Amino acid sequence: MSEKQFIEIVNDRENNLKNISLKIPKNKLTVFTGVSGSGKSSIVFDTIAQEAGRQLNSTYNSFTRLYLPKYKRPDADEIHNLSTAIIIDQKPLGGNARSTLGTISDISPLFRILFSRFGQPKYGTASNAFSFNDPEGMCPQCEGIGRSYVVKLDEALDYEKSLNEGAILLPGYGDKSFYLHAILDSGFFDNDKPIKDFTDAEMENLLNGETPMTVQYKGTELNTSYEGIIKKFYRTNIQDNRTMSDGARKKIEKFAEMSTCTMCHGTRFNQQVLNSKINGYNIFDLTNMQLDQLILTLDEFQDERMKSVVADLKSRISNLINIGLDYLNLTRETSTLSGGESQRVKTVKYLSNSLTDLIYILDEPSTGLHPRDVHRLNDLLLKLRDNGNTVLVVEHDPDVIKIADYIVDVGPKAGIHGGEINFTGSYEELLKSDTLTGKYLNHKLPLKVNPRVAKSFVSSSKSSLHNLKNIQLKVPEGLFSVITGVAGSGKSTLVEQVFAQENPDAVVIDQSPLHGNSRSNSATYTGIMNEIRKLFATTNGVDDSLFSYNSKGACSECKGKGVIELNMSFMENSEIECPQCHGGRFDPEVLQYKFKDKNIVEVMDMTIEEAFTFFDDKKINSKLKNIHNVGLDYLAMGQALNTLSGGESQRLKIAKELNKKGNIFILDEPTTGLHVSDTENMIRIINDMVDKGNTVIVIEHNVDVMRSADWIVDIGPDGGSRGGELIYEGPVAGILKDKLSVTAKYI
Ligand code: ADP
Ligand code: ADP
Ligand code: ZN
Ligand code: ZN
Asked: Which of 665, 721, 726 is nearest to 327 (CA)?
């Protein structure tokens, strides 16, 4: 094999990496394994993706580069044979109200072509007429959003009062106003009758009427129109949905709320578009079907002339189905997709990319997938590879590790105890190797021997939200419950959107990033910093605000940021380390104050593990212990929150809650980012929380977590409309006898 067939890294020192050198085969599927914090991301993201991005940028001139993302040169001696790298991450797709699964997957344009050519009656000249984002196709009331402002009648009218008594509460109807006069003089109403006594016809006229009339106003006779109050409110207050300012929205929100558009009933299209049909279906009927039903329906489209468009549609739709998204529909707004769903949509998008020799990088693509569906992900990864690309995956799921061409195991442990290459080679070789990963791959936890017994329950009301079939969540108080089911079965809907809303003291701990800017770190977030400031202050007899870089202690040069932005008018902006504090953020004056011979910057540079042996303060050590317990020993005290992964953020949130008693905690896939060897530790943490008197509800796909729970609730049997039923609830041992449960097969 020629050397060009490898990506080669020589002496990599990024983050915790210990001068590692590595050759990764190109056009193969390589999986990176190792405990959390061992250095996998440092290799894949901070070295390979960074350098690939930087090399690509350097091919542009300096003006263009101003507008490209900034990449820094990784701390490695040499990196060879890179090509363009594409990161397929779990950042939610987001997008505005006009972005749907159909638009983002490029399936909507195909439907537009189909209807513009074959829809009856014909509508429009171009295929854009079938787009809800085009004036020709959109509903005129909501302008293609499907929702519009609807006046809240209870806020707009005081039903107890008559018109003369001031029943109209909307702005613009003051005593002396022209609009109030026009209504009072219209002769349509008994101005002294309370609104609650109006007949339906009177009410309709008051709200939506429109009749020419003359009004006596300030001594003149005006020819005008009588205009109902809602009509007028829309005309004067509701401007173009797309350009309305936040201020304008605020002003009207007391009187109106966004709700399903009353004209298009949420379809987003105008009536002409909806009238145009093929085989009895209009474009909304089709795009609003669940994908598995849509593909069957397209079988009815047999007309020879449609053949090529229909074939194209089917192939794109089946790509989405094959990755386990069969329960979604094309009208679904992208902003409501979960991280795992977003990542799968992105992956499918790249499948139809005909460029080859790319490097695809995926971070834990199995997140959110039930064990039943992992083989679908595997097919997709292999397909990306077989299209002629190099696929690099960070993954803990044994079923994904199994299909790798090549495995790189990083470790042996986390942080300073990691950063080395433990192993490279095939799956069979890994199993025989002396690594934690190899040891744990065939290791299954036994079913819990003495599960706690349910005494009392907390529950939600019965719900039919999304796909739920009038079911309730009922879990035992003070026990460890796990909620399972395939993706799209309804777990998050039931637990997070129904149960948690109805039990407002339940704390949801998910993987969303911790809010905070570059100035917040693990020590400030967990409250350790406050205690450390007090220690430094009392030891040195000075004010404790000196030991905050957000306050008096900030370096005067960089104002506590640690970096200085250089604004060079004709070249790239760049950040350099602050020459005064060298990135330490504190005023050099502050560094004269010591605690046990260390200044505050030296303390911030310590890892959680080092800090634990350094301090012997009760409060500080108990907080450090909690962070240690969730497996984040390797974090530096001063490490900024925005450098933490989703899984790390979630574990830090857990650490903050560990001393609480008598709460309900909801954990959404807490094993994300955890090595199989760390899963047992997470289970121990959950049991500790339960022993402290908390009720813990865990949404999980990890089989070891299922086996260790006291109680299991299985939602299914499938995703979307074929899910939303309660398949099993009870002690874990009982589910094994349940024939309907897909989950039972994996426990
Ligand atoms: P993994 O991907 O295996 O979980 P990482 O490569 O993310 O591990 O982390 C390896 C080590 O580098 C950890 O000690 C982590 O805290 C540290 N680290 C990662 N990113 C940063 C960063 N941006 N700043 C400082 N330390 C970091
Ligand atoms: P799970 O958590 O088991 O993966 P979800 O609760 O996310 O399942 O989804 C259950 C069903 O509800 C699916 O059909 C999904 O498409 C639908 N759904 C979930 N969230 C929304 C939403 N915000 N809007 C519309 N449909 C949704
Ligand atoms: Zn509408
Ligand atoms: Zn500074």
From this structure: 721
pTM score: 0.85
Identify the residue whose tokens are 């749907």.
100
Indicate if ligand 2 lies below 6 Å from the C-beta of 469.
Answer: no
Residue closest via CA to ligand 1's atom 6 equals 39
Residue 613, beta-bridge partner list: none
Q: How far from 434 is each of 362, 418, 431, 461, CA to CA, in Å? A: 26, 15, 8, 51
Phi then psi dihedrals of residue 277, to 5 deg: -130, 155
β-pairing, 6-12 vs 390-394, is: unpaired
Query: Where are the strands (E) in 210-344, listed by range?
Result: 210-217, 220-227, 256-260
Q: Is 556:669 a contact under the CB 8 Å cutoff? A: no
Q: Which of 313, 342, 296 is nearest to 104 (CA)?
A: 342
Is residue 569 very low, low, confident or very high in pLDDT (cuts 50, 70, 90)? Answer: low
CA 247 to ligand 3 center in whole angstroms: 23
Instruction: Name which residue sits closest to atom 12 of ligand 2, judged by CA.
Output: 466
| ipTM, interface predicted TM-score of the complex | 0.94
- Closest C-alpha among 141, 137, 153 to residue 241: 141
Q: Is-contact 565 556, C-beta < 8 A?
A: no
**Position of tokens 């044994």?**
398
State the Rg of the chain over Cα. 31
- CA atoms of 101 and 332, how far apart (whole Å): 6
